[in-house]
Amino acid sequence: MQLNPKVYEPHTELAEFVKRYWTLDGEKENIPLRNTIVPDGTMKLIFHYGETYKHHAHSGAITILPKCFLIGQLTKPYVIEPVGITGSFVVQFKPNGFLPFASMPIKEMENTAVPLNKVFKKDGKQLGEQILNAASTNERIKIIEAFLFKELATKKTIDTLVKATVETIFQANGQFSVNEFSKSYNINRRQLARKFSSAIGLSPKQLAKTIRIQRILKTLLNEDPTSFTDLAYENEYFDQAHFIKDFKEFTGLTPKEFYGDDLKMSLIFDRKK
Q1: Minimal CB count within 10 Å: which of 115, 138, 202, 212?
Q2: Superfamily of domain 6-152
Q3: Where does residue 13 rank: exposed (0-12), middle (13-18), buried (19+ CB within 10 A)?
Q4: Are 21 and 42 in contact (CB under 8 A)?
Q5: 130-158 pLDDT, tens per residue?
């Protein structure tokens, strides 16, 4: 498969918000007809300087995605299909990283491709044009970072409790108890869930489940597990049925079906060379 993914680090002063930038280039004939974006707990700004993509909704509806948009938090697989030669520049935010730049409730963007003019108003239209007309990835990074620094100067900072919750979930690889965390920080669990959901777009439980599934997916990409039952128990699932249910919720596939040839777009950088 002739795809050329590349990863770039953000400016150190943006690293609290941006996980990484990446580009993806390839020919249509070298890409599977349909690609599945698996939920990973992050929101992304996507700029298609190549051809755009179709989105295949669960209902069967097909829509053409904008050239420039924000993809909100995903809670289910998001199926897309290239319509031509791929050329994409992506800004991947950390789970709590987009909040300072949001002009609308993050929860409203869930499982949705939001056009830039709706996210950033007239500034979004201008940003999209500048990114698409840029001559190189380095130029695109300079443009987006200048934009993000300007936005940051006028926006609120991330709540320290939300930040601590995200860090705890990641450190525990998704093995997270809302009750235990609430007690240790002396906060009501419902209050924590509301605060977290408004900042992240997911509940603490949803993010923890996402991180746990992502860890399993990386294992499946790079190792041949002796059994799916063992994999389920290693990741503290009570039984294999619960594990398979969560797996299908996030990927649309059973663990066995995952070994097919379909490209998992959000896992493209997790496969060891």
Answers
A1: 138
A2: Jelly Rolls (2.60.120.10)
A3: exposed
A4: no
A5: 999 999 999 999 999 999 999 887 765 66
